[in-house]
Amino acid sequence: MSVQDQNAWEREQVVVQAARKATPEKFVGSEKEPNALFKSIGIMNTPENLPVGYFKYRPEDFIVEEERPDGTVITVDGEPAAPEFEGGEGTVYFDMTKVGISTIDAENRISEITGYPNKDIGYAGIKDAVALTSQRMSVRGGILNEILMLSLPGSIIRNVHEGKGVMQVGGLKGNRFTLMIRTENPVEQAWVDERIEYIETKGIMNYFGVQRFGTPRFLAHHVGKSMLVDGAAAGVRAYITRESDFELPYFAEKRAAASEQWGDWKAMRDTFSELPYAFRHEMDMLDSLVKSDGHFVTALEAVQQQAGLWVRAYASFAANEAMSEAERDGVDITDPMPQMLNADPAVQRIYKKRLEKDGLRNPLAALKKYPFIRVGRNPTIKPKVVPEIHSYKVVPGGLAITFSLPKGAYATTMLMYLFDSVTGYPVPEWLNTSYIDTKDVLGTGSLKEVKEVLGGDIDRIMERKNKKDDGK
Q1: Cα Rg of the chain, angstroms
Q2: What are the tens digits of pLDDT across the range 402-419?
Q3: Which burial class, exposed, middle or buried, applies to 318 when counting CB atoms under 10 A from its CB (0-12, 13-18, 19+)?
Q4: Is 396 helix (H, G, I), strand (E, B) or coil?
Q5: Backbone angles phi, psi at 394, to 5 degrees
Q6: Which residues pair with 420 in a beta bridge?
Q7: pLDDT tens figures, 261-296
Q8: Residue 132 · residue 120 · CB < 8 Å
Q9: Whole-number Å distance between alpha carbons of 153 and 468
Q10: DSSP structure class, residue 14
Q11: What's the CA gap between 91 and 135, in Å, rounded?
Q12: Which pTM was predicted?
């Protein structure tokens, strides 16, 4: 989080914990059918009869390490990766290991602390906050000593050096994942071997994973669709008021109350004001609506980074649907497959059913209403990938596994072929909560330094998680 977001979160927790104690029933999600979340984001062909596997209990259970174009890995435990940019000046490069913050949060923090504008801070891909991650970053025009002295909560900075060029989005080979999947019952070695052989032989459909669709509501694609099909007002309204089966009742009630006040922007903002972190994007849009006298495009521009994610989520939903249909029908798909926001004429054929159903004739033309949103030049996706599985081991309480995926592929999709994957709240009572150093277990390194330097940050994350789960 940024400093501002951290302060908002801390103020909010006082209200949330009091409400949780008074009305614990409002902090319990409804039961969902298996794979309901996958189906809601367009993935219709999930394997059946798989054991339940809980992931992301601890941040160290989900490790993401960037693989550079030359194949070197930026590891979380500091295994040296040779600098790629020698013999020049003008840019400072560094490797960052972090926990509890996304790449975008880290970018914002660096900008706040150093004064460098966000546009001068570069990275190849966005890494999740709910994980332990590592990646290379750059600061154009940065001062070496300033970055050497940079200290960010939840982060370790290593391998600071100068060079030419900048880090650019997409400038990576892929990511190496090291995961601990926790299970109720011991998994059989023979069964794991069989599933791994299937994955290595058949590959997996490269579906967009759940994190693409906006935690915790998983409605980002609906917001993006509203923006492109029905316009800015519909997009703003969808984000602020649309109900989700995955949102806890306490937060859903706030949203429902604000929906009844639609058009009275100040009153809606007051409704959300007790929860300045959970509803921060809603409040930013409402502030803009007050200032602009109801100009909805301006409201979306106030959260333009999020608005771009919503539009891309809609394109990702359409891609998931198209890949699901192809997998179901045994039909080959163009490789690479153009995404919906692409000028390729094949878009009209691949997404014909979705475009006709939504009444959207030309997605790129619809996007022109929002000049502040950039989606990349003719984005594509590889519809099928074969994970490179490095090692796996059955351990007490579950399975430790490490594998690599090319850029644009999701670990959660890989997990879909191994387990009926669940995460979040409530944490199952059967869960083995023991700390496990998966890198040590798999012989790929150690989390000793991470625990020494970032242990306090991890402990705070687990304290918050446990408070949320036990209703305190």
Answers
A1: 22
A2: 999 998 888 988 998 999
A3: buried
A4: coil
A5: -75, 125
A6: 52
A7: 999 999 999 999 999 999 999 999 999 999 999 999
A8: no
A9: 22
A10: H
A11: 16
A12: 0.79
